[in-house]
Amino acid sequence: MTPDLTPKLPGQEPDSAAPPRRESRGPAAEPTHALARGPVVPPTRSSEGFLREFLRELQYGQGVTLARSSPNDQYLAMARAVRHYLMADWLETARRRREHPAKMVGYLSAEYLLGRQLDNALLATDMVDIVQEALAECGISLDTMRAQEVEPGLGNGGLGRLAACFIDSLATLDVSCVGYGIRYEYGIFRQTFVDGRQVEVPDTWLSFGNPWEFPHPEREVEVNFGGHTEQYTDEDGRERTRWIPGWNVLGVPYHYMVPGYQNGVVNTLRLWSARATHAFDLQIFNSGDYAEAVRAQTFAENITKVLYPEDSTPQGRELRLQQQYFFVACSLKDYIDQTLPPDFDLKRLPDQIIFQLNDTHPVIAVPELMRLLIDDKGMEWDEAWEITQKCFAYTCHTLLPEALEVWPVELVGRLLPRHLEIIYGINERFLEQVREAFPGDELRVRRMSIVQDHPFRAVRMAHLATVAGAKVNGVAELHSQLLRDKLLPDFAQMYPDKFTNVTNGVTPRRFVRQANPALSELISEAVGPGWERDLSRLSGLESFAEDPEFREQFRQAKQANKERLRALLLVRDGVELPEGHLLDVMVKRLHEYKRQSLKLLHVVTLYESIRSGEVAAEDVTPRTVIFGAKAAPGYHMAKETIALINAVAKTINADPAVKGRLAVAFPANYNVTLAETLIPAADLSEQISLAGMEASGTGNMKFALNGALTVGTDDGANVEIRQLVGDDNFFLFGMSEPEVAALHASGYVPSQVYADNPRLKRVIDLIASGAFTDGDPGRVSAFVDDLLYNDRFMALADYQSYIDVQERIDAAYADTEAWTRSAILNVARAGFFSSDRSMHDYLDRIWGAGIRL
């Protein structure tokens, strides 16, 4: 993918035809006017004040009158008017932080799944009523404005949603933080179904403008790639290394405001967009070669074109590594060269900032910081390494070895030759320490090496992060234990004090207060206002679980949420949900370890039992199963699973034999916006991954906080949810992690499980017959064969336990009062899963308590 370009290298004279680069750093002139020096004055907080801001933006921002404006004009003007109120707090927060500096968190994440910004901004500024009243004066509905906003899909799932929750909490806790990431031109694809199969459509989230971002081209950063290194002697006679890059791009920052909850604090999310250093060649254009004239621009912009380019090709893998290096190089250089004072002593860098590595995607930042300190700032290796080890901490989000990124040495060397040299240097010194600690154990040395030799020579990014990080944390108690015992046991033995746990959490502002107004009102009446910033106060609901009147109000809130979901899906997807059903929901990324296949087997089991006459339809608890999931574009088995779910849904929903008793819905393009309506409506939360496979999960927390009961394995944060809400209020099934390991060791044969279980055999045979695929068994053969002869995640082994617990669920749901009591207790006991608590844990266990303001 390396282009044939002739970029300007360090030390070369600038092209006389190129426009001058604007200087972005250095102190501004001292303002003389008192208003310029003092606190920023926000617009008037009243409906009249907001109306003035709105009409001004409509006329002078959009260039239209109210009478001639479109809904998009109105939305953009309204959003920018709301933004004015946030901007005043944003500028004031920055001023206060400059005057009273504190150690900062630099949150490095390749994903930020933010959700829509309008409602979050209105909630944070407590301006919902003001805006609603002002718009009503113009005959505009706030709901209409909400519908205009396009969700920025800058994440794939839980990782990006977690990052968004964390930066929300850091602002709410008034912790100095900048989130760093990538401004993808096209986010996670928009999912559509064609004949039941997933088809990916580009996510054009920027098409109609984005009023929530601020571009700052004057703070652009140059990022180099390729080329080679050379040795030279500096002016002090020291042997040094110089990187001579082959090509470069510019990173332009776009700022997003991250408001705290009604506290006047607004932090910053800084997303980087790539553009060419020389975007347009006029001479080539005038010669008639128009495509060549803009080739550099096209190539550079590809870096931030799309979230997670398909990496099944060498070109896709190279582009992914380019993305990762691009955003961390921009972020580190921006902080060191454009945020710190010009005369700052970099030996004090660990006192100023901690960079949190959100999974392995940003780990290339480790050799980049070393390069900056050694090559650009002239430090010696040992001094630079001591600083680097104090500036990073690493969060691992997986237990799947294949999810720990490994980059071929050939690719790293070609794209980032200086960084590969630094990685070799880190590894060489590290392995010396391993040999000293464990003399004669060369197998351990091989296992722990940052650079692997087999099956191909590559850099293990998780090993690099663990060696360089001041702390390494898992994201649930079980996950952190397995991280120490199974995923990185050699490192845990060598660095026992380096490993810790921080159980994930979710923001109660978006996922309870904003998503579930009916329940939020009920909570506030019961425990008083302010619980949104102290979720432990939900424990005050416990006594209300015994109150029949409160239980009835709770059911009414749940029913209101179901009606809201029913109305949304009818308009959004043309899906008509039956009334009066248990709402059984499984929404998450489509992956075999999450076992959507097991849920599908349960659905077919219910269907087959009614169709065969084994169970009378009137004896079945009415149930609607809702799936929501996207499969990675290159993940064949996940796509086959989606196709089969849709085929089963089509058959079941058209069969009069099960009408009114069983229905299946799979709305396309599950995202944060849909989640905010779907999760509050759910009765049952499906968290059925194979024990030992899910790091944490955060959907499980959102469901519990919104009054859904969980059916799940003892996996990830399910363990902690069950411990907190109580066994009586959680439907546990399946093998434990030690039992899974024992079955693996003894030799798991899924076809034997199939042969020994007549009910399971009937269900799989029904699928295999083509009963759901218009009589064509070939369309399901890959799915069936994988279950019978592979079943890596043991869906068949847990099948009978899962069917048994679902029968218990049917019986439990029939007891309305007992079910409601359990749902209330889930809400009351789930306050631990606030992302505010997670941030306190990071502050105390990883970043240092002194970081607090």
Q: Specify the CATH architecture of the largest domain.
A: 3-Layer(aba) Sandwich
* CATH domain fold name of the largest domain: Rossmann fold
- Can you tell me the residue ranges where pLDDT is under 50 for at least 5 consecutive residues? 1-18, 24-28
Total individual domains: 2
Q: Supply the CATH class of the largest domain.
A: Alpha Beta
Q: Report the strand count.
A: 25
Tell me the helix content. Answer: 40-55%
GO cellular component, one term: cytoplasm
InterPro entries: Glycg_phsphrylas, Glyco_trans_35, Pyridoxal_P_attach_site
EC number: 2.4.1.1
Enzyme class: transferase
Per-chain topology:
Blueprint: H1 34-37, H2 47-61, H3 71-99, E1 104-108, E2 112-113, H4 118-125, H5 128-137, H6 142-148, E3 153-154, H7 158-172, E4 177-182, E5 190-194, E6 197-201, E7 213-215, E8 221-225, E9 228-233, E10 239-244, E11 247-259, E12 266-276, H8 282-286, H9 290-293, H10 295-301, H11 314-338, H12 349-352, E13 353-358, H13 365-376, H14 381-391, E14 392-395, E15 406-408, H15 409-415, H16 417-437, H17 442-448, E16 451-452, E17 458-460, H18 461-468, E18 472-474, H19 477-487, H20 489-494, E19 499-501, H21 508-514, H22 517-527, H23 548-573, E20 582-587, H24 596-611, E21 623-628, H25 636-654, E22 662-665, H26 672-681, E23 684-687, H27 699-705, E24 709-712, H28 718-725, E25 730-732, H29 737-746, H30 750-756, H31 758-768, H32 781-789, H33 799-814, H34 816-829, H35 835-847
Parallel strand pairs: 1-4, 1-13, 4-12, 13-14, 14-18, 18-19, 20-21, 20-23, 21-22, 23-24, 24-25
Antiparallel strand pairs: 2-3, 5-6, 7-11, 8-11, 9-10, 11-12, 15-17, 16-17
Helix pairs in contact: 2-3, 2-5, 3-4, 3-6, 7-35, 11-13, 13-14, 13-16, 15-16, 23-26, 23-34, 24-25, 24-31, 24-33, 30-31
